[in-house]
Structure formats: C-alpha cells, structure tokens
C-alpha cells in the first residue's frame, strides 16, 4: 500500500505548484488578459502539477528567451 507520508507530500507539491502558477500569472505576467489569467488559475487549481509544467514551458520560457 501507499504510505501516508507520500500522500501528504504529493498534496504539498500540488499546493506549491498552484500557488506558484497563480502568483506568476497575477503578479508577473502582464501580457495576459484577465480572462487568460482566470483560465490559468482555474487550470492550476484543478490540475496543479500538470498546469505548472505546461505554464513553465509555454509562458515562462518565452519570457526567458525574449530577454
């Protein structure tokens, strides 16, 4: 069976991923419209780890390469 610690670690990672995406979208990504920000935040709430990975490769890497 799965350990209880692994379950809580996964939840902690998912929470951190959600907070990171929401923070980045609402405070640092000025190019997105309000509806885009709401969509990224909703996606991060429901699919936090996957959304964090997709956000990094689609939005964050574009910022780094543009600089």
Notable features of this structure?
67 residues, mainly alpha, 85% helix, 0% strand
Give a summary of the structure in a few sentences.
This protein is mainly alpha-helical.
Summarize the topology.
Layout: H1 4-28, H2 34-46, H3 48-66
Helix pairs in contact: 1-2, 1-3, 2-3
Q: How many helices in DSSP terms? A: 3
- Strand coverage percent: under 5%
Low-confidence stretches: none
Query: How many discrete domains?
Result: 1
Q: From the alpha-carbon coordinates, what is the Rg to the nearest angstrom?
A: 14 Å
> How far is it from the N-terminal to the C-terminal residue, by CA?
47 Å
Envelope shape: elongated
Structure description:
This protein has 67 residues and is mostly helical. The chain has one domain (4-66). Helix content is 85%, strand content 0%. The protein contains three helices and no strands. It has helices spanning 4-28, 34-46, 48-66. Helix 1 (4-28) packs parallel to helix 3 (48-66) and helix 2 packs across helix 3 (48-66). The longest helix has 25 residues, at 4-28. It starts with a helix and ends with a helix. The relative contact order is 0.14.
